[in-house]
Amino acid sequence: MPLQYLASSDLSRCHAESPGGVKALGAYGVLERLAESEISRDAADFLAEPSERPGWVDWHTRLEGRPVPFGALDGHERDSALDALCSMAARYRELSERLAGSGSDARATAGAITERVARAAAACAVGASGPMLFMVDGKPVLAGWGVSTAMGGLAAEGFELTEYQLELCGLILAGARPPMPDSRPAPPPPPEPFHPPGQAPAPPHAPAPDVGTAPPPLVPVRPEPRKRLLRHS
After folding, report:
1. DSSP string, 139-199
2. Within 10 A of 102 (CB to CB), how many other CB atoms are there?
3. What does the pLDDT look like over 104-134, one tens digit per residue?
4. pLDDT digit string, tens, across residues 154-167
5. Average pLDDT, whole number, for the chain?
6. Which pairing describes strands 68-69 and 56-61: parallel, antiparallel, or unpaired?
7. Nearest-CA neighbor of 20 among 126, 117, 106?
8. In the prediction, which pLDDT does 150 show?
9. Alpha carbon of 135 to those of 10, 45, 65, 80, 205: distances in Å?
10. Helix, strand, or coil here: 112?
C-alpha cells in the first residue's frame, strides 16, 4: 500500500527522543506491531510512519482517505474526532503501563515510548498541538510523536501546558472524556468604518435624521395696515 504524506518536522527546531537509549523513530516497526497485537489495527494506524532525511522527519500514513487537519474539522466531525483521540490516548497509556511492568527491558523501553505517544495524543485533545493531528478515513493519525517538538506546535515532550490543560490531560489518560474548550481562534473583529481625512466620525449610536416626513412650507405673513386714530376736538 503506498504511503501518503502528512507533514514534516524540522530537526533544527526539535530533536528526536531516545528513551532508554533507544531512538523512538527507529522503533516505529516494533510500536506498530505492538499496537496492532495489544490494542487494535486502528491503534497501529494512529502512529504516522516517520521517514528521516537530512534535517527533517517526514510523516506518512498507509490509510487511503484524504487527510484532514484536526483544526479544519467542525461541529459533529470535531466531536467524533475528539472522542476517538481521547480513547486512543487512554489505550496507549494502558499499553505503556503493561509494557513497563512486563519485566523485559525491551518492552519497558517500548512502554516509555508509548507513554509519550499517549501524552502527545492527550495534548492534541486539549488543543495544545492540533496541527500535527489528522483525520484520515474517519480515524485519527498522529504525526510528530517521536520528537520533542514539531513544526506546527506539536509537543510530545517539553510543551508548557496550562494548569487547566494538565488537569484535562490527566483525565483523558485515565480514560475520561472531559468537555474540551474550542481551541480554534476567534473570528477577527469587524473592520472600522472608513472616514475621509478631516471628517470626524459620527458619534456612536447617534440617532438617524427623520427623513420620512417633510416639514410644512413656510408661508409669509403680511402685517395688517395700521389704523389711523381720529382725534375729536
Report:
1. EEEE-STTBSS-TTS--SSS----HHHHHHHHHHHTT--------SPPPPPPPPPP--TT-
2. 13
3. 888 888 998 898 889 888 888 887 556 788 9
4. 444 345 677 887 78
5. 78
6. unpaired
7. 106
8. 44
9. 22, 11, 9, 10, 47
10. helix
Residue in this structure with the C-alpha cell 468604518, named with its chain if needed = 193
Q: Contact, 129 vs 155, CB < 8 A? A: yes
Q: For cell 527507529, what's the residue? A: 26
Q: What is the CA radius of gyration of the chain?
A: 34
CB atoms within 10 A of CB 223: 5
Q: How many residues in the chain?
A: 233
- C-alpha 47/C-alpha 114 separation (Å) is 10
> What is the rounded distance in angstroms from the CA atom of residue 10 to the CA atom of residue 54?
10
Residue with cell 494548569: 163
Beta-carbon count within 10 A of 175 CB: 13
